[in-house]
Write a structure and sequence with these properties.
Layout lengths: L2 H13 L6 H14 L3 H4 L6 H6 L3 H5 L27 H8 L1 H7 L2 H18 L2 H18 L19 H17 L17 H10 L2 H11 L8 H40 L19
Helix pairs in contact: 2-9, 2-13, 6-7, 8-9, 8-13, 9-13, 10-13, 12-13
The protein binds zinc ion (ZN) (2 copies).
Length: 288
Amino acid sequence: MTRIACLLATAALAALPVSAWSDQGHRLAARGAVKDLPPDAAMWFRTLEGRMADHASDPDAWKVTDPSEHPRHHLDCEPYGGPGNVPLDEDAARNQVGPDRFQASGQVPWTILARVEELTRAFSTQDPYEVVFQASILSHYVADLQVPLHTTANHNGDETGQHGVHHRWERGLVERIVEREGWVPEVRPAVLGPEPAKAPWAWLRQSHNLVAGLLRDDLGARLGPPEKGQAEQDAYWTAFMELQGPHVKEQLNLAAQRTAEMILYAWTRAGKPRPPVAYPTGSAQPSR
Ligand SMILES: [Zn+2]
Ligand SMILES: [Zn+2]
């Protein structure tokens, strides 16, 4: 690639909205979540796993038409003074940092709870298509919260001179893991904790704790500027994969398991309904 082409490609990447995991990663998390459900809840998804995967990236597309969609995918901890200081209550959070900063710094934990509400309603309607659609959308936001760089204002490394680290971690490494290794999340049965409505804040703390190591490893792997030779580029990816590949896999495992936990939460709140007897065969799915 010429230098001009490189610059154009970099500019095009920079113009893309922040979209975690790439479509591949979101699909893996959504399909993995179904495998982590106990049999009674998994019955709702038994012929609709394709639908579960197909809608898992829809919220990224919504950013194009809805200006308030973008901040639903992240939460910067810095305005709150760290991940341990983010209030559970949305109004309290808004009051703490002011409405403008609240809007700009992201709302992913509250978005997850709002999506649990939607899924609870869907279970109550007894409509499997709606259940699977809402579960798929929920999976997107849960997966986004497992991306460490979605919890910091330095989301693309610009504050530390590491521009593009966002894509390198959640796309570059995911593509290598999925396409070259054929990796899929391991099955980890979901457990509904005692206070599931507080779980996203625990995930936020855990995810944020990975930020410093991720940035350190990106520097340690030393990606040269775009015009550097292929050998340097290859050396970077080998080193970055060795250092951060295990974290990418673990965060995808957690994205699947934690999505399943939130599905269980909604299903339990709806009274653990059984799917209707006339369950779709999966052949003629309505588009949405
Ligand atoms: Zn997203
Ligand atoms: Zn992202």
